[in-house]
């Protein structure tokens, strides 16, 4: 009987262990998932690394090609740059000369216009002087005529004798 109890107890422990393993022990599942994740990660990483290595290899080849042709290109590029800078300097000097000529011509034009305006102001001023003088003369004539008129009027009425 004791063997039966031990056998039943062993069965109960095995059942409890199986239940425990199914419900609470996830080692097999997690280790499988981890292996899958690591395998996928390494494959993707290796693909990216291979692509990056290929890109760096192509870039290195292009750099090597350009380094080989650099001494020849250096001389041609340097002479071309000298020509370009020379033409730029020449164009800049032309622009500066053009601006100076423009400034001088504008200055001369402004001076000419100022002289014309001064002459016009003087002409208008002298015309006004003449007109003012004519008006003053006209008033003097009219004043003399009025004085004469009133003198005659006074003498006709003998206003002097009444006083």
From TrEMBL:
GO cellular component entries? BLOC-1 complex; transport vesicle
Q: Pfam families of this UniProt entry?
A: Muted
* Family according to the record: Belongs to the BLOC1S5 family.
Q: What is this protein called?
A: Biogenesis of lysosome-related organelles complex 1 subunit 5
- Name its species: Leptotrombidium deliense
Lineage from the top down?
Eukaryota, Metazoa, Ecdysozoa, Arthropoda, Chelicerata
């Amino acid at each position: 009987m004791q063997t039966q109890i031990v056998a039943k107890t062993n069965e109960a422990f095995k059942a409890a262990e199986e239940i425990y393993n199914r419900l609470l022990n996830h080692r097999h599942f997690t280790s499988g998932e981890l292996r899958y994740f690591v395998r996928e990660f390494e494959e993707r990483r290796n693909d990216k690394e291979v692509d990056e290595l290929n890109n760096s290899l192509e870039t290195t080849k292009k750099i090597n090609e350009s380094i080989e042709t650099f001494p020849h290109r250096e001389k041609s590029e340097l002479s071309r740059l000298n020509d370009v800078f020379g033409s730029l300097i020449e164009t800049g000097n032309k622009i500066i000369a053009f601006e100076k000529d423009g400034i001088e011509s504008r200055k001369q034009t402004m001076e000419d216009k100022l002289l014309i305006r001064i002459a016009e102001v003087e002409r208008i001023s002298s015309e006004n002087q003449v007109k003012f003088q004519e008006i003053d003369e006209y008033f003097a004539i009219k004043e003399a005529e009025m004085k004469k008129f009133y003198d005659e009027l006074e003498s006709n009425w003998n206003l002097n004798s009444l006083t």
